[in-house]
Amino acid sequence: MRKKIIAGNWKMNKLPNEAIDFFEELAPLVKNAQNEVVICVPYTDLFYSLMHVQGTDIKIGAQNMHYEEKGAYTGEVSGEMLKAIGVEYVIIGHSERRAYYAETDETVNKKLKKALELELKPIVCVGESLEQRESGKAKEIVTTQTKIALQGLNNNEVSKTIIAYEPIWAIGTGKTATKEDANETIKWIRGKIEEIYGKDTADSVIIQYGGSVKSSNAKELFEMSDIDGGLVGGASLKADEFSKIINYNQ
Ligand code: PGA
Questions:
Q1: How many angstroms separate the alpha carbon of residue 31 from the centre of ligand 1?
Q2: Is 52 assigned a catalytic role?
Q3: Model's pTM, two decimal places?
Q4: CA distance 120 to 78
Q5: Which atom of ligand 1 is nearest to the CA of 173?
């Protein structure tokens, strides 16, 4: 049985004091959560967030990392730096980073390898644009993104990789993929992983859905056979709303 991971992605939101208020409100609401709870916060909130989730089951993640350990990369943060302060998860290759900061499938692959080497838990984002979907290329796109991301990994590493299927047209738009569509694409991704790494590995990979997940649609999405939780943007900014998504099955 794969566990469900509900991860928030705050993007470029919340000052440290707002992060602290959020965790104080969220912690009691998710005390008995049956699902893994992760919040991926801006770099400047990481340390404060880690301090404030101590003694709770809430895990903290970053939203990006560099694949080199150190060096002349002004403005970047390495996986080693995240690991050193106790960060557990890291989002890799979010579509906003692919679109605005020239992330490619190749840099995603390098970052993923580095994250796994450091035993950070990577959440790798894949997903098609509206144009790609309308021209019937959605499956081809997610297949390429997934295959290149996983290139050179062994079975054990693949099974430790979390994938988030996030159709770009559903991110921040209020348009959610139907549960059937999301499940079908996630099954497709799992099938492609099976072709290369075998059934046992494919069955063990956690694949989330992301794109306008909210408390009103979380249950129907997360109850589908292949959807192992979600990556949640806008709806993760309010503790009350996010707690309802986390506790969708209670
Ligand atoms: P959204 O964002 O939930 O606001 O659509 C999801 C994401 O970008 O990870």
A1: 24
A2: no
A3: 0.98
A4: 11
A5: 5
170 Cα nearest atom in ligand 1: 5
Active-site annotation holder among 66, 94, 96, 103: 94
* Tokens standing for residue 166: 């996030």
Q: Which atom of ligand 1 is nearest to the CA of 234?
A: 4
Task: Give the active site residue among 103, 128, 157, 166.
Answer: 166
**Contacts with 103 (C-beta within 8 Å, 6 or more apart), sequence order:** 93, 94, 97
pLDDT digits (tens, 9 = 90+) for 227-246: 999 999 999 999 999 999 99
Unique residue bearing structure tokens 């970053």? 62
Mean pLDDT of the chain: 97
For the segment 170-178, the average pLDDT, to the nearest whole number, is 89
Mutation pick for ligand 1 pocket among 5, 213, 214, 215 (CB with most ligand atoms within 8 Å): 213
